[in-house]
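Lay summary

Proteins are chains of building blocks that fold into shapes. Our project writes down both the chain and a compact code for its shape. Here are two examples, one after the other.
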Amino acid sequence: MAIRLLSLGVASYAHLRSGELAQAAAVADVQRKESEQHGDLWVRAFALYFLAMAMLAKGDSAAAIRHARDSLALKWQLHDTFGAAINLDTLATSLALFALEQAARLLGTADKLWHSIGRDRMAVKEFLATRQACEQRLRQTFGDEPYETAHRVGLETGIDDGISYALGLW
């Protein structure tokens, strides 16, 4: 069963990378349901992350936020710092459209978590580009000084408190 669940994740990610958002979401939803049936929290969290990414790409921020928060809660419960970090970035990107201060603060917490891993966004160009685009959007719409202030709050907040803050949004 583990191989099937992981294969569904690979298929969902492949659809995401190909821009096939409906297929990505459908496969991720099957992965989520099957992982729930088998009690697999780790795979379910990745299914939720893939759903969040598909919803974000489709422009459904509310669904992206919901799925990313659910994934973040599971990843943090499992002490999966990488999984938590990618979900914080997804949450920040989803919020950057309308909740600028919160998004900047989450980027600060995400930066702190990525720093604890040892390598910024694992040097994955897609992760780095997403983070850079989010910051750029926030600086353009929120302003440099407000962005820096909110980002600093996220950086200076303990990671557990930063995760709690992220889980309490919307």
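And here is the second example, written the same way.
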Amino acid sequence: MEDGKRILATKLLSDNALGECSFFRENHLVAIELWKPKSNYHIPLFHTLYRKFTVPTTLHECLSGLPTFANLDGSNLVNISLVDKIITGDYTGGQVTFKNKNNKESINASNLSRWKQIYKDAISAERELRYIFGAEI
């Protein structure tokens, strides 16, 4: 029996605190409701056969739930399995280019050496597929 798609989500603990970022199986999803943990904050709450989940709301949660992503430069995450190459620039930094050749991200000099090691590790990283809820903007 197929287990269903793995959906990236954050576990909701029994006291309604957010747990670790993980996933649930699509075919275990029973219901989705609008959850209002704060008066001005509305997010989906996923009821599954086994527990409750919500969407990741921080980069830290996304990073822990997406095994092929790494923190590029403090405020963004990138999929290391799609990195084509890392270019060292003349401006004491660098640039990450991706396999589609249309996207590029800059790296400051202090993170450049760390990223070269991450890139080497990415070549042999185990691939795992997870789906993310999102909307085009």
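What can we say about the second shape? Residues 68 and 127 are 7 Å apart (CA to CA).
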